[in-house]
Amino acid sequence: MTNWLNHHAAWHEWRRAMASDRMHHGWILAGKSGLGKRDFAVAAARELVAENGVHQPEGDHPDILILTHLPKDEKEEKKRDEGKPYQTKRNISVAQIRAMQKRLTTRPTLGSRRAIIIDPADDMEPSASNALLKSLEEPPQGTFFLLVTHRPSRLLPTIRSRCRLLRFPTLSDEELRRMLDESGAADGGARDAAIRAAEGSFGAATRFMDQDMGALADLIERLLGEGDPGFAARGELARAIGPRADRDRIQAALELAQAIVADHARRAIGSAQARALIDTHGELVTLAGQAPTYNFDTGLLAMEIGTLLSSASAASEHANG
């Protein structure tokens, strides 16, 4: 398991709660994506359900239930069962919550405690959130909920009010570099670009490294710095993303663009260009939300990203000013 350098405070609070007379039954594990919240949830759940003198299995634990995105269809389910990458449904359904609640009518298998992990809880359907609320209001004895969330504001206020909050901080550039070194990531410009773009998220940094986003980062910087009056850079961007890019690569490209634009905006505070960069960041966020649900042509999507970046460049500002 990854050695997460940002979990020390969370472990201190969790173990202090476990040592108290009354352990709270609901926990929200909050922080941006890629900070190891699920790893923490699984490790914390194992500590919670373990009992002295009772053998604990190394792999899946019968008293730890994990609810997450299911495969999109039977074809993707077959890929999952074969250990291949597979596409998932967009939401955690009410059927999954109700199936979990049926399990809660029985006693835990190995001890007196059971843990339910929902990851990410902010992707529950509205009906699933309402169903979960009933369990949080009247939790069965010995049942504890760990809700992994990247955007806690998307949870129902009534769910948030019934849970304790554990926040997971982002990692510094030096911590990211150390963790990438420990994971065996290659040194060099690609790693430095990934660290800069990840904005403190180890998950994002490794994703950028896996997708080999160094050349793409250079093109984004070029579009922001020079604009693209002849459309040549936008064509290069489309080729760098790839004509048949899968959803993961498109999402990584959008996240990379958002991160680099945000970095430029922070360094341009107070200027007209800063406002343009902030607006561009918002449009990229919107585009990232739309991309999974629309049948975008990858080339057209790359051109749209390039147009947004070019329009926010200092060169464009001077040309239009």
List the SSEs and their pairings.
Layout: H1 8-18, E1 26-30, H2 37-49, E2 64-67, H3 74-81, H4 94-103, E3 114-118, H5 126-137, E4 143-149, H6 157-160, E5 164-167, H7 173-182, H8 189-198, H9 202-210, H10 214-226, H11 232-241, H12 247-267, H13 272-290, H14 298-311, H15 314-320
Parallel strand pairs: 1-4, 1-5, 2-3, 3-4
Helix pairs in contact: 4-5, 7-8, 8-9, 8-12, 10-11, 10-12, 10-14, 11-14, 12-13, 13-14
Describe this structure in words.
The structure is a single chain. With 321 residues, this protein is of the alpha/beta class. It folds into two domains: 8-167, Rossmann fold; 211-320. The protein is built from 15 helices and five strands. It has helices at 8-18, 37-49, 74-81, 94-103, 126-137, 157-160, 173-182, 189-198, 202-210, 214-226, 232-241, 247-267, 272-290, 298-311, 314-320, and strands at 26-30, 64-67, 114-118, 143-149, 164-167. It is elongated, with a radius of gyration of 22 Å. Mean pLDDT is 89; it is low at 317-321.
Unreliable spans: 317-321
CATH homologous superfamily name of the largest domain?
P-loop containing nucleotide triphosphate hydrolases
Distance between the termini: 53 Å
Q: What order do the SSEs take from the amino end to the carboxyl end, as H and E?
A: HEHEHHEHEHEHHHHHHHHH
Which architecture of the largest domain does the CATH hierarchy give at level 2? 3-Layer(aba) Sandwich
Strand content: 5-15%
| Strand order within the widest beta sheet | 2-3-4-1-5
Output the number of helix runs.
15
The counted number of beta strands is 5
Question: What is the global morphology?
Answer: elongated
The CATH class name of the largest domain reads Alpha Beta
